Amino acid sequence: IFWFNYRHVANTLSVYRSVKRLGIPDSHIVLMLADDMACNYRNPKPATVFSHKNMELNVYGDDVEVDYRGYEVTVENFLRVLTGRLPPSTPRSKRLLSDDRSNILIYLTGHGGNGFLKFQDSEEISNMELADAFEQMWQKRRYNELLFIIDTCQGASMYERFYSPNLMALASSQVGEDSLSVSHTFFTCLFQFKVCPQSQCVSTPGHRTDLFQRDPGSVLITDFFGSVRKVEITKDTINLTSPVEPPIKRSGSGDIQIESLTYVDQLPVAEIIHQKPKQKDWHPPDGFILGLWTLILLVFFQTYGIKHLKHIF
Amino acid sequence: LDSRLPLVIFLHALTPAAARDEFQEELVIRPLHSGDIYASFQFRTLWDTDFLQEGQKVSHYRLFPKSLGQVLSKFSVRELHISFSQGFWRTMQWGQPFIPSPPGAELWVWFHDTVSDVDGNWKELTNVLSGIFCASLNFIDLTNTVQPSASFKPLGLGNATDHRFLRYATLPREIVCTENLTPWKKLLPCGSKAGLAVLMKSEKLFHSSFHSQAVHIRPICQDEQCSSKAWELRQTLNVVFDLHTSGQGKKEWSLFKMFSRTLTEACPLASSSKVYVDITDNPELFELSPATPLLGQAVVLGDRRTYSVYDLSRAETFGQLRSFNLLLRDMLRPLLHAERYVAGFGLQTGEIHTVIYNNHPYRAFPVLLMDSVPWYLQLYIHTLTVTSKSRDNKPSYIHYQPAKDRHRPHLLEMLIQLPPHSMTEVTVQFERALLKWTEYTPDPNHGFYVGSSVVSALVPSMVAMRTNFTQDQPLFSSFVPVKEESSYFVRVYTEPLLVNLPTPDFSMPYNVICLTCTVVAVGYGSFYNLLTRTFQVDEPSPPLSKRLANLIRRIRGVPLLT
């Protein structure tokens, strides 16, 4: 891994922290980190990731839950999470369980170019693939409104191809510009909806709201970044019922033979030496063997002719 | 006026007779010879219930975590052992750990003999566990799972040992970080809010030489008569703090220095909560404060050790453990030790050497060596040699299952008798395979990992061990069931190997396309032009005046200007 990608991990974790602070629980967050910076041997302070060089805030924290890490972060897995087409044995924490009333926030950061975003230094996701994935999500009714934030070089090219309704996109740089990962500043810009001056940001943030049905000015940030939990407060006292008594086990008095339970010998040397070899299941001959025998038989019959068989049998 | 939320809850006090589960926690601190300090946490939940009962689903969970209980009943698991470790345990400097584990992630499971499709259950189980522990256990598939034929016998109760129901897999590359510790802490009854688990802060735990957390589930005897089974869940965490990085070079250790926290109370749900400090080496010369009159003795790993015991359930224990100065002398040299390395040069062939040391002065004992090598290192078993003291040593049992490309790894198990005070070397040559270009990881020049070898042995003990189990035995000496008094069972893991495979240059397709297209375009293109291009003389277009004059002349019908 390359250590200069530390800032990408720090950016993602800052967004993760803000989202958690505003009320979204871990079961509603899918966090994908391609590199492990916190517990890497190069990190002078293990289990910490800082977003600023004065090291005041550890964004890794004590209760982070990373759902996809290391080699699991691939284009295929990302698209599968978005569209929901995961193998049946995937656990819930790795799925995006959204329906047609959910608002989704997607934040991507890394290295990118005109029309693509790099994954793991060996693959890319293109803006067309992303647009198609969002269209699949729309057709399967997997979102109500979606906010897409991208923080890479030439990030604005990633949202050029979107064509599904109810999408709003924000990018930290235009096509042809490099983003120097000043996400912290970008973030304050976002919250105050101010345009970041060229001198501070080095890149011009871009946005796209034409596919959005509501008026962007009336959309609250917390529609995507936070959530309100339903809490009911009551003044009545509630009696908890007594704990469920498990059925009493019938003590085997004479009818059932209780076999004495023992522990197994961990290294039974004599038993191991005299172990009988396992009965190997018989498998029909493999393709290669079958082909080889067919060839031999063909050559044989070709040379000698089938009428000579009667001399053999 | 304060508006409290009057949400009053009535708890039915459980009488001791009705309580079906209990929880114990303990912490053992052992100063090591090199100045480092070894801390081992063990949390045990005992539950008298039957997950695998027909028609009776367990629905009321108290201390036992529900996520694990559902996993056990859904996949008919008899025993489950999973461990995540960061760093390598240095046996020669630190002795033997209480619970050994290899670097990376290791998972071995015994299924019940009622299971019909063990491989299917195994695949689903690894996926579910990867969600529970936030780890990439979904990378465990048939290409790195083996079915040992003699190693890894069940550690719990049971007579049947058909190895068809055992599966073992290891991921040596797996990283352990806070996201694995968080769900592990959530499985404890008190979480990380009370008891010994408040000490587990990730910034200190991962800044260490060795960190290992594990979960072990097995059925054990409920009482001394052993008439019925109970389920035991043990969560263990072993950590070794380095003298220089955590201790600032001074051999003065305290709980605050190690964990940046102190203990304030025991877990209220625990029936016993104790801290043990190993004072066998030189009890007079170090100062342990606050002092405690309680002393305990235990026979662990073949040695009798003395411990100062702090009972956290008694209120007078509290004060804090301040710094204690220790002076150590040479402790018992470990009798069994193993190393492994790759020899050879180049990217085609190589040789794996496993070296096992028997440091006992006069006793020989047998060890069971288990090696699981991935399929892309093609072993040549006809070159397998086992030599002790430069003489051939023939193993009394060999089980070898060859690998199938992209299906199965190699499995080699051997029972070797180690002569006393000797070094045994096992060598086998291999050839490296060339993978298909899509099978390489994004960083192939880092290398590919080969999981640790496992050496299981019954080592002769200096001190007689107890064969019967009692309830008040400390947890760290009661993990492995003892069958005979004169030897103890130990498992030693070797280092994982990092092997380079021949890696293609992934930029070559792009280079080839560029070069070919350029050659074709320049070479063929210019050749074609030379052959087929004809030249024509072209008059430049006449100036405006001439054109105007021509126009007038055309009207007049007079010949045009050239």
TrEMBL record, chain A:
One of its GO terms (cellular component) is GPI-anchor transamidase complex. The active site is at H111, C153 (nucleophile). Pfam families: Peptidase_C13. Pathway: Glycolipid biosynthesis; glycosylphosphatidylinositol-anchor biosynthesis. Keywords: GPI-anchor biosynthesis, Membrane, Signal, Transmembrane, Transmembrane helix. One of its GO terms (biological process) is proteolysis. The chain crosses the membrane at residues 287-306. One of its GO terms (molecular function) is GPI-anchor transamidase activity. Belongs to the peptidase C13 family. PANTHER family: GPI-ANCHOR TRANSAMIDASE. Heteropentamer. Part of the GPI-anchor transamidase complex, consisting of PIGK, PIGT, PIGS, PIGU and GAA1. Interacts with GPAA1. Interacts with PIGT; this interaction, via a disulfide link, stabilizes the expression of GAA1 and PIGK and links them to PIGS. This is GPI-anchor transamidase.
Automatic annotation (TrEMBL), chain B:
GO terms for cellular component: GPI-anchor transamidase complex. The keyword Metal-binding does not apply. Keywords: Signal. Pfam families: Gpi16. It comes from the Eukaryota. GO terms for biological process: attachment of GPI anchor to protein. Residues 1-19 form the signal peptide. The keyword DNA-binding does not apply. PANTHER family: GPI TRANSAMIDASE COMPONENT PIG-T (PTHR12959:SF11), GPI TRANSAMIDASE COMPONENT PIG-T-RELATED (PTHR12959). This is Phosphatidylinositol glycan anchor biosynthesis, class T. It comes from Cyprinus carpio.
